[in-house]
């Protein structure tokens, strides 16, 4: 049995979430600094190996019309540097807004720690994938 990892790739931070072994529950895991990029890739691969991950879902920020802009291409380029795992791109439109709403509902102040939003966004991305 393997877990599934999800990544919310931003320009400064990468939110990480993991599934359980049954692929039912998504849990926020950590936030990885994006720069330097080779360290970020190494940290993601380390987390994946330590947690018996075989598949990584990478959030793909599309424009509202479905096209891929600069940020979307950046996520595609980043995901291609992660080796040794099945990589799946998942539409992540509006996941940050949903993540912020979830944190507000739980009365978690994320204004001084944006990494909380990134981890929760990765959770939303993973839940979308698991829901299908």
Output the number of helix runs. 4
- Contiguous low-pLDDT stretches (5 residues minimum) are none
* CATH homology group: YqgF/RNase H-like domain
**Under the CATH scheme, which architecture would be assigned?**
2-Layer Sandwich
Write the layout of secondary structure elements.
Elements: E1 3-9, E2 13-19, E3 26-33, H1 37-50, E4 53-60, H2 70-79, E5 86-91, H3 95-105, H4 114-131
Parallel strand pairs: 1-4, 4-5
Antiparallel strand pairs: 1-2, 2-3
Helix pairs in contact: 3-4
List keywords for this structure.
single chain, 132 residues, alpha/beta, Nucleotidyltransferase, domain 5, five-stranded mixed β-sheet, 4 helices
Report on this structure.
- By secondary structure, this protein is α/β, with parallel strands linked by helices.
- The chain has 4 helices and 5 strands; from the N terminus they run E-E-E-H-E-H-E-H-H.
- It has helices at residues 37-50, 70-79, 95-105, 114-131, and strands spanning 3-9, 13-19, 26-33, 53-60, 86-91.
- The protein has a 5-stranded mixed β-sheet with strand order 3-2-1-4-5, sandwiched between helices.
- Strand 1 (3-9) and strand 2 (13-19) form a beta hairpin.
- Helix 3 packs across helix 4 (114-131).
- The longest helix has 18 residues, at 114-131.
- It is globular.
